[in-house]
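Reviewers of the previous submission asked for a worked example of the structure-prediction workflow described in the proposal, so we include one complete record here. The input consisted solely of the amino acid sequence. No template or homolog information was supplied to the procedure at any stage.
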Amino acid sequence: MILIATEDGVYDLSGKWRCCKGKEVYDLLEDYFCAWEGVYKLPTEEKIEGRSCWRLVKAEDRIYASIEGPVLLDLHRGREIDLSRFAKELGWHFPHGPPHITDVTRFKEEWIVAVEVGHMLAGPSLEELKPLGFKHDQHNLLPHGRFLLVATAAGIYYTADLSNFAFAEGSAGYAHALLYCRGRLYSHVMKNTPIIESADGRQWRNLDIIKLPPPTFGTTALGCYNAELIYSTTSTYVIRDGDRDVILKGHPMTKRVIVEGSKFL
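From that input alone, the workflow returned the following structure tokens.
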């Protein structure tokens, strides 16, 4: 099932409001949802954390919430991995509050963490993260083949060794979302032909025949479901054969397309 996490609650593709009305929802995972207003537990929507939350990730057999700071909050044990010391030492910043972690992934036997806005971090565990040389306004991470791809406010970068980062040709723009779907890589930039695609992550092309409402800041508008590419901002579309079909019209601005959502919804 696909869910659309929006700036005013969560909807399914029938247009039914499913939860979290009045909340700016950035992510859902199992029995938690993550919002600008904090972290909540489903199905009761009990608030369990008051700091702004940007992402929910499953790592090391636990669920972590990315809290402003940046902080990774272990929702199973209530323990925090507080990275705010790096923010102070290295001059991280975010224009709308403290810096935060936007994505977490596994690459080259290490855990990789992206910060908005700050350095990428890596370590053998989430409690042993150290800053790398790469600093940017980072949004999304995706391992693909021998490369790690990074979507940033300037476009997409790739690295094979976590030391040398190259800018991907054809990816310039405010890039959000990175996913592999039906044999290709996809991301989006902030324009009225937003979707870009790639075979290898190093060279990208804009699908300039497909006009769509552009994403806004903080929108991760792409998902892949049953090998079909889904795009969602203020309406939701399936992208097929160089064209678009609307499947849900006129909802609040999407913050994230959720393919694996809560077990309660």
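The mean pLDDT is 95. We consider this example representative of the routine output the project will generate in years two and three.
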